[in-house]
Design a protein that fits this description.
This protein is of the alpha/beta class and 567 residues long. Helix content is 41%, strand content 12%. The structure holds flavin mononucleotide, iron/sulfur cluster and FE2/S2 (inorganic) cluster.
Length: 567
C-alpha cells in the first residue's frame, strides 16, 4: 500500500490561513509519557495531515479510548492545533475522546444496532437486557445500521458481529472474549487470476485498449452509479477525463444507508472484481492514486483488502495508480461524496457546497472520480461480455442487473441480484420466499432510510432510478425494507428521522434543528401535521446536502399513504 505523502498544488480558499502557522500546538500542556507513547505508536509513519484519522484509529485500537494527553501529543506530533485534532476526533462515533480527569472506559464495548430492520427484529429488548446484565463492566451502546440487516438484530462485540443476536449469544461472545472479526471464504488473488482475472487490466496497461473504447462500452451498457444517485457511469468517466491532470479517484465503500448490504457481499466474496474494476476506471481517467474509503463497520473486509491489495502491488498491477486504503470511523455522512473526500483528507466529514463538483475539485483539490463499490464490481464483466450482455438483462425500460438488499418481513432476506426494474411484489414472492409467517404486506422502503415509504397498493412499480419520484420516493442504493400489518408507520418514520438526527453533520440549521424537532414531534400519537410539514419542507429546500434534503421523505410518505397511523 502506498504510504508516501502525495503533494499537489492546492487552491487557496478565500479567507484561508496563509503563512506557516505555529511551530507548536496551542492551549494544552504536554504530558511527556503521552508524547513518548504517541511517537512510538506512529513509528516512522509519515506525519502527513491527511492521515490524522488513521492515527486516531491507532490510538483508539491500542488504548481503547483517546485520552486528552494522547490527543494533545498527537496534535503536537503532527504539528496541528489541538482544537483541530479535537474537532476531528469528536466528529466520529468510533473515537472515544476522554476529557482530562475522566474515568477510563470499560475494556469492552458492545454496540447494538437500533436502525429500522434491527428495531423491527427486537433490538430494543436486546439493548435493555444487555444493559441490565452488564451494569457498567462492559459498555453497551446504540449504533446505526451495520450492513447486516438480512440477519437482524445485530450486535458488535469488540469487532465481532453477532448476527440474529439474542442476549445469550451476545453474552457468550463477550464472555469468551470473541472480539475479532470473522472472515468468510472468498476468491483470493490466485483464484481470481486463474479464472482470467486482471487480463482486462493488463490489456489496458499494455495499450491494447483505449480509454475512449471503454467509456463507450460503459455508456452502452446503461450502467448507472449504484451508490444511490444513479449517475451514468460512462458519462462520469468521460467528464473526469476531460479535467486537468493530476487526477485522483475514490472508491465509496462507506455503505451506511440503513438497509443496504450489497457492497459488503461483493467485497467479502470477490474483492478482486471490484479492485480490477477500480484500477481499470483509474486507468481510463488516468488517476495517479485511488483512495478506497471503507466503513469501519466492515473490519473483516479491511483485513481481506489489506492482504489482497498487497498481492496486487506485488504483481505490479498498481504501476499506473497507487492504492490507499482509508478507514471510516462511524459517520454515515461520510458516504456523501464530498464529505467522504473531506474525511479522506483527515478532516470532519462536512459536505461541501457545489459547484464546484468533486469531478472538478475533489481530493486535495484535484479532479476526482468517485465510484461506488458495486458500480466498479460490474466493470470487468461489462467490458469482457459486452455492453449488451448487461443492458439486455433489465426489465422493460430498465437496463442491467441490480443488487437489491431485501430485509424486513420476508421469509428469505438477502441480496437479490435480479433484473433492474423488478417490482417489490416480485422481490417478495419470486425472490424472497414470500412474506414472513403471520405478516401481511403493508408497505416498503424502496431506497433505504432516505428513499421514502410506499404502500402495498403501489407494489407494482418498477424499482429503478426515475420511476418512484412522482410518489415522493427514490430507489437510491436499492435497499428494500418490507413492512407488514404489524409495523406502525409512525414508529417506522420516527426511527428513520432519529437516524438522520444522529447522523446530521450539524453544518446547516434546517437539517440540524429540523431533524431534532421532527423526532420530538413524531413521538406524539397524533402528529402536528402543519408544523411537521413546514419543518420537512424547509429541510428539503434549504439543506446543503442529500441527507437534509431527503430526511423528511419518510415523514411525508406517512402523511400521504398511512395517515390512519398518525392522525
Ligand atoms: C447522505 C448521503 C449518503 C451517501 N452514502 C453513500 C454510500 O454509503 N455509498 C455510496 O457509494 N454512495 C453514497 N452516496 C452517494 C455518493 O455521494 C456518490 O453519489 C456515489 O458514491 C458516486 O458513485 P456512483 O456514481 O458509482 O454511484 C451518498 C449520498 C448521500 C447524499
Ligand atoms: S444537510 Fe445535514 S448532513 Fe448535509 S451538510 Fe447540512 S447539516 Fe450536514
Ligand atoms: S444491521 Fe441493523 S438495520 Fe442494518
Amino acid at each position: 500500500m502506498a504510504t508516501e505523502e502525495i503533494t499537489f498544488r492546492r487552491h487557496k480558499h478565500p479567507g484561508g490561513k496563509r503563512g506557516k502557522g505555529r511551530a507548536h500546538t496551542k492551549g494544552r500542556q504536554l504530558v511527556p509519557t503521552a508524547v513518548e507513547e504517541i511517537a512510538a505508536l506512529l513509528g516512522d509513519r509519515p506525519r502527513s495531515r491527511d492521515l490524522l484519522i488513521e492515527y486516531l484509529h491507532l490510538i483508539q485500537d491500542r488504548y481503547n479510548q483517546i485520552s486528552a494527553a494522547h490527543l494533545a501529543a498527537l496534535a503536537e506530533e503532527m504539528r496541528i492545533p489541538m482544537a483541530e485534532a479535537y474537532e476531528v476526533a469528536t466528529f466520529y462515533a468510533h473515537f472515544d475522546v476522554l476529557r482530562e480527569g475522566e474515568a477510563p472506559l470499560p475494556e469492552l464495548t458492545i454496540r447494538v444496532c437500533d436502525s429500522l430492520t434491527c428495531e423491527m427484529m427486537g433490538a430494543e429488548a436486546l439493548l435493555s437486557e444487555l444493559s441490565g446484565h452488564y451494569g457498567g463492566k462492559v459498555r453497551v451502546v446504540r449504533a446505526p445500521c451495520m450492513g447486516r440487516c438480512d440477519v437482524a438484530p445485530v450486535a458488535e462485540v469488540g469487532h465481532f458481529h453477532v448476527t440474529s443476536a439474542t442476549a445469550d449469544t451476545v453474552k457468550a461472545a463477550a464472555d469468551s472474549n470473541h472480539t475479532h472479526p470473522e472472515i468468510p471464504e472468498y476468491t483470493d488473488y490466485d483464484a481470481y487470476r486463474a479464472a482470467g482475472g486482471y487480463a482486462l487490466l493488463e490489456e489496458c496497461l499494455a495499450g491494447k485498449r483505449t480509454p475512449e473504447e471503454l467509456i463507450e462500452i460503459m455508456s452502452g451498457s446503461g450502467l448507472r452509479g449504484l451508490g444511490g444517485a444513479g449517475f451514468p457511469t460512462g458519462t462520469k468517466w468521460s467528464i473526469v477525463r476531460k479535467e486537468p491532470k493530476p487526477r485522483l479517484m475514490a472508491v465509496n465503500a462507506d455503505e451506511g444507508e440503513p438497509g443496504t448490504f450489497k457492497d459488503k457481499l461483493y467485497l467479502e466474496t470477490d474483492p478482486h472484481r471490484m479492485l480490477e474494476g477500480m484500477l481499470v476506471a483509474a486507468w481510463v481517467v488516468e488517476a495517479e492514486a485511488v483512495y478506497i474509503y471503507l466503513r469501519d463497520e466492515y473490519p473483516g473486509i479491511r483485513e481481506v483488502l489489506l492482504a489482497e491489495i498487497a498481492k496486487v502491488e506485488a504483481a505490479g498491477l498498481d504501476r499506473a495508480t497507487k492504492i490507499h486504503l482509508r478507514r471510516g470511523a462511524g459517520a454515515y455522512i461520510c458516504g456523501e461524496e464530498s464529505a467522504m473526500i473531506e474525511s479522506i483528507e483527515g478532516k470532519r466529514g462536512l459536505p461541501r457546497h457545489r459547484p464546484p463538483y468533486v469531478a472538478q475539485v475533489g481530493i486535495f483539490d484535484r479532479p476526482t472520480l468517485v465510484n461506488n463499490v458495486e458500480t466498479l464490481f460490474w466493470v470487468r464483466d461489462i467490458v469482457q461480455k459486452g455492453a449488451d450482455w448487461f443492458a439486455d438483462q433489465g426489465k422493460g425500460e430498465s437496463k442491467g442487473l441490480r443488487s437489491y438488499s431485501v430485509s424486513g418481513r420476508v421469509r428469505e432476506p438477502g441480496v437479490k441480484l435480479v433484473p433492474a426494474g423488478v417490482t417489490v411484489r416480485q422481490l417478495i414472492e419470486e425472490y424472497s420466499g414470500g412474506m414472513a409467517d403471520g405478516h401481511t404486506f403493508k408497505g416498503y422502503l424502496p431506497g433505504g432510510a432516505s428513499g421514502g415509504i410506499l404502500p402495498a397498493s403501489l407494489g407494482d412499480l418498477p424499482l429503478d432510478f426515475g420511476k418512484l419520484e412522482e410518489h415522493g420516493c427514490f430507489v437510491g442504493s436499492h435497499a428494500v425494507v418490507i413492512l407488514s400489518d404489524q409495523d406502525h408507520m409512525g414508529g417506522v418514520a420516527r426511527n428513520l428521522m432519529r437516524f438522520f438526527e444522529d447522523e446530521s453533520c450539524g453544518q446547516c440549521t434546517p437539517c440540524r434543528t429540523g431533524t431534532e424537532k421532527s423526532v420530538k414531534l413524531m413521538a406524539a400519537d397524533k402528529w402536528d401535521e402543519g408544523l411537521l410539514t413546514e419543518l420537512g419542507t424547509c429541510m428539503g429546500d434549504a439543506s446543503i446536502c442529500g441527507l437534509g434534503q431527503a430526511a423528511a421523505n419518510p415523514l411525508f410518505s406517512v402523511l400521504k399513504h398511512f395517515r390512519e397511523d398518525v392522525t
